[in-house]
Amino acid sequence: MFNSIKHTKISEDIANQIKRLIIDGKLKPGDQLPPERELIKQLGVSRPSLREALNSLVTMGFLEVRQAKRTFVKSVSSKLIGDPLFLLIKADDQKIFDLIEVRKAIETWAAYHAAQKASREDIKQLDTIIGEMKRAFEEGRSWEKQDADFHLAIAQATHNTIHMHIMSGIYDLLRESVGRVFRDRVKIKKLLDQHYRIFNAIKNHSPDKARERTLEHLNYVESEVKKATAQ
Fold it and tell me: Top-level CATH class of 78-230?
């Protein structure tokens, strides 16, 4: 009837707390953890215990360490989805249409729920990203990152942790697939206008309109990819 009481290590308690924040969506894919010194202060733990916890989370795939030894939340689906799909699409260009079909399903759903659930902070984030994309376009700079960031921010606005990680897992695919096709400034401007229409629907909390605008956008992307493939 009873189970023996187990004493957990401090590092396990730290790891479980961070993992719970990721599972609950309070720490999102791409979020940077505070500096080591700040974490030690907030958690009230020693440096060795913190480092052991962070290393275990890196091993499990919840965190990743990038340049300058900064620690970020990793998409838990990145290795399961991103890399194999990237190789699959590279091997067969026609697979890009399979990706677009999947995007239609999950991103129209996301836009609908984002319009219902988006917080003031979510709306501000979307507004910031679309403003950055507009400036990049007007200045003739690369805009693909902001394009992918916009779709990822919509996923975050759903407040659905699983969906956030799935979208984060295909983040590089979004950048790659759009960047290869849209080089003409008229077409890029059309993409930007479509983003503004999606944003306004979410901002106005209009779920049906957000879903419709997203489908219109992805139908346009599909049509341009077909033209590029035919050429």
Answer: mainly alpha
